[in-house]
Amino acid sequence: MVQKPGSIVHVEIASNDLPRTKQFFNTVFGWKMQEMPEMNYTTFQAPGAPHGGFTPPQGGMPAGTLNHILSNDIVATARKIEQNGGAILVPKTEIPKIGWFAVFREPGGAVLALYEDMPKPRASRQRPAKKARRSTGRRK
């Protein structure tokens, strides 16, 4: 299913005790986990979308849940957020080989994030070489 901009596409749970949190969600809800040690991150796959990840609290933020909203252009969306009374807390930041995120606060105080996919390399379409026409020896 293709997600449209503005859709919640990722849920991040920041925990002060990652091993206990991961065990809890696996035991209670059966979520499948995949460790990403190079990022100190664990993704989870819930039975339905959106999926997400577990992380220790980042940048002085408390433990809690951070919903990521899909954006086609984080810089442009961040500009709209600021023009409409929101604040950017973490600017556009790369998630290596995956995409980018930014964290913002909306005017009522809720903290959320934006997510932008990294463009996928296009498979080169190689056309088969044209076959040479055989000459029949006849002229038109």
Plain-language structure description:
With 140 residues, this protein is an alpha+beta fold. It has one domain (8-117): 2,3-Dihydroxybiphenyl 1,2-Dioxygenase, domain 1, CATH 3.10.180.10. The protein is built from 2 helices and 8 strands. The chain has an 8-stranded mixed β-sheet, covered by helices on one side. A hairpin with a 5-residue loop joins strand 3 (41-45) and strand 4 (51-55). It is globular. The mean pLDDT is 86.
How many domain units? 1
pLDDT < 50 stretches: none
How many strands?
A: 8
Give the terminus-to-terminus CA distance: 55 Å
Helical residues, percent: 10-25%
Helical run tally: 2
CATH topology: 2,3-Dihydroxybiphenyl 1,2-Dioxygenase, domain 1
**Global structural class:** alpha+beta
**Percent of residues in beta strands?**
35-45%
Which CATH architecture? Roll
Strand arrangement in the largest pleated sheet:
2-3-4-1-5-8-7-6
Give the gist of this structure:
With 140 residues, the chain is an alpha+beta fold. 16% of the residues lie in helices and 37% in strands. Strands 2-3-4-1-5-8-7-6 form an 8-stranded mixed β-sheet, with helices on one face.
State the main characteristics.
2 helices; about 140 residues; eight-stranded mixed β-sheet; alpha+beta; globular; single chain; 8 strands; 2,3-Dihydroxybiphenyl 1,2-Dioxygenase, domain 1
List the topology elements.
Layout: E1 8-14, H1 18-29, E2 32-36, E3 41-45, E4 51-55, E5 64-70, H2 74-83, E6 87-95, E7 99-105, E8 111-117
Parallel strand pairs: 1-4, 5-8
Antiparallel strand pairs: 1-5, 2-3, 3-4, 6-7, 7-8
